[in-house]
Amino acid sequence: MKNFEVEICSSENINQDWYVYIYDTNQQKIIQKFYKGINVDYDANNRRIRCEALKESIEKELKSGWIPKSKKKQLPQPEDKGYNIIEAFDIAFKIFSIANQI
């Protein structure tokens, strides 16, 4: 659980959604929120029990090495084959010229 804290967000107003979230202490922001199965019950005690169970489960996953994804989807990173620009252009040209012949 490197730099992550798992917390519960609850409200006195039972009509508001409760959730469990992962907070990154380095970036000082919420990384991910979990609502799953918490807000189906309108009893505050039952919601608290569900939140605690979900919190424990998330903490266990973090301790086992799971790294949560941030809210923003990261762009896929290209694989570095070690080609310079001219070599990469030649390879791409060969691939496309073969594809056009088919």
Can you characterise this structure?
The protein has a domain at 4-63. It is 36% helix and 18% strand. The chain contains 2 helices and 3 strands; from the N terminus they run βββαα. The protein has helices at residues 44-63, 85-101; strands at residues 4-9, 19-24, 29-34. A hairpin with a 4-residue loop joins strand 2 and strand 3 (29-34). It is elongated and about 65 Å long. The mean pLDDT is 85.
For the termini, the CA-CA separation is 52 Å
Order of helices and strands: EEEHH
- What structural class do you assign from the helix and strand content? alpha+beta
Q: What's the arrangement of strands in the largest beta sheet?
A: 1-2-3
Task: Give the tally of β-strands.
Answer: 3
The poorly predicted ranges are none
Number of helices: 2
The average pLDDT value, as a whole number, equals 85
The helicity comes to: 25-40%
Share of β-strand residues = 15-25%
Rg calculated over all Cα atoms = 23 Å
Using the alpha-carbon principal axes, give the shape.
elongated
Query: What summary fits the major beta sheet?
Result: 3 strands, antiparallel
Defining key terms:
elongated; 2 helices; single chain; alpha+beta
Short structural summary:
The protein has helices at residues 44-63, 85-101; strands at residues 4-9, 19-24, 29-34.
SSE blueprint:
Blueprint: E1 4-9, E2 19-24, E3 29-34, H1 44-63, H2 85-101
Antiparallel strand pairs: 1-2, 2-3
